[in-house]
Design goal:
globular, 137 residues, Alpha-Beta Plaits, binds magnesium ion, alpha+beta, binds 2'-deoxyadenosine-5'-diphosphate, 4-stranded antiparallel sheet
Amino acid sequence: METTLVLIKPDAVKRRLIGEIVKRFEAKNLTIRAMKLMKMSSELADKHYAEHVQKGFYGELKAFMTGSPLVALAVAGPDAVNLVRKMMGATKPADSAPGTIRGDFALIVTENLVHGSDSLDSAKRELALWFREDELV
Ligand code: DAT
Ligand code: MG
């Protein structure tokens, strides 16, 4: 069993896609161990996206991610890290296959609806940033 961090990003919340996205993880029979609607702080953005803070697109990414509420989830199941990434689709909407969340609903790269940890190490690091141990059921 693995647990991974999923973020339903601000664009998805604005577009009323929370239910659609959660539905897909539930339909796959993954387990939701924690879920909260909140705004990402500037400090959390810098920690969460530590690998991207130096990149040219980070200003735009940070403004988008901290600008309005998102939903953070801890999602568990066998191979949950890779499985969730597969269900999300590729980063660039033009590369994401139909049937994936991004493939079905995303049009531009910044507003690509969902985040999923990209490795088990990332998942552990990111989950610790977003949830206290006692928030995970
Ligand atoms: P992913 O979210 O698929 O793990 P990533 O970690 O490479 O992708 O990038 C994090 C987010 O940053 C991504 O979801 C959207 C944004 N992003 C990535 N590359 C970008 C680019 N070239 N221009 C603008 N935004 C970008
Ligand atoms: Mg990433």
